[in-house]
Amino acid sequence: MNVLPRIFSRFIPQLLHMLVLPIFFFAFMLIYHPFDAVSYLGSSWYGVHITITSCIILVSVGILRLLYYYLPLKLNYTLYVFWCILEIIFMAFFVALYIWLVLGKPMAYFEALATSLQYLGLTLVFPYSILALSMRITDYSQKEQEPEHSSQRMRFYDERHNLKIVLPPSSILYITAEENYVSIFYSENGKVRNYVLRSSMKAIDELCQDNGLLRCHRSYYINPSHVKVLRKDKEGVVYAELDEKDVMHIPVTKKYYDRLSDLLM
Predict the structure, then answer these.
(1) Could you report the per-residue pLDDT of 204-262, keeping only the tens digit for each?
(2) Which of 9, 130, 174, 256 fits a disulfide with 222 by CB distance 3.0 to 4.6 angstroms?
């Protein structure tokens, strides 16, 4: 299944989840009183309990959404649904603690947890669905508005999923990695330029493969269309010479040599 569109990983959607979920829960529970909630929580302090529960949801969602934002996750739609279910379970864990410890309900903790899952799951399925559908529609609209040739460009995002640079694949010479950064060497107006991006080779692996770049070394991706020749030095190490001047020779390991060599034939 396809990886989620990048809009699902941006900060604004995470912020919307942090705000919309507790607000929707508070309004829905206060207006409709579903699942016999008034008798369960108590009619005299019902509004207070709903307010505190909404605050618990706010903090719980905030923790997991920030974690989701900062971790380099690659989720498809199925895994994203599981992540949302995990959030509901995480919320229910603390809501159940509040019901069990603070309200002093005469029940086992796991009974309170099951009740919390019922309240949260059946209520929050609506805002979760609306937010996911809205992000999908927004992503589709943005793609529709892009010019046709824009799909032939590579979009590089940093570790926080912020767009940093957009380049045509044909302009890229090679990409190298060092610790938490990757250096993108590309040709522009007859000059070789370098852009340093805070990311990892793993994070850009799919992007490079989809745009014709080939891995030639643990720390290098190379554009085969710019390779002029493969040479072996006196020690038997193979290097790729590029068609641009003043560009270093790129090491090619045995693991990737055959595939690169076949592309140059």
Answers:
(1) 888 898 898 999 998 999 999 999 889 888 888 899 999 888 788 999 998 888 888 88
(2) 174
Angle between helices 11-32 and 46-70 (to 10 degrees): 160
- Give the Cα separation of 180 and 132 in Å (integer): 31
Q: How far is CA 8 from CA 40, 50, 77, in A?
A: 36, 29, 10
| Distance (Å, whole) CA 214 – CA 7 | 27
Domains with residue ranges and CATH for the chain: 6-145 (no CATH), 153-264 (2.40.50.1020)
Give CA–CA dist 198/158, Å, rounded: 5
Q: Going by DSSP bridges, is the β-strand pair 154-157/220-222 parallel, antiparallel, or unpaired?
A: unpaired
| 250 touches 239 (CB < 8 A) | yes
Distance, CA of 91 to CA of 49 (rounded, Å): 15
| Distance (Å) of CA 182 to CA 34, 128, 188, 239, 250 | 52, 35, 18, 20, 15
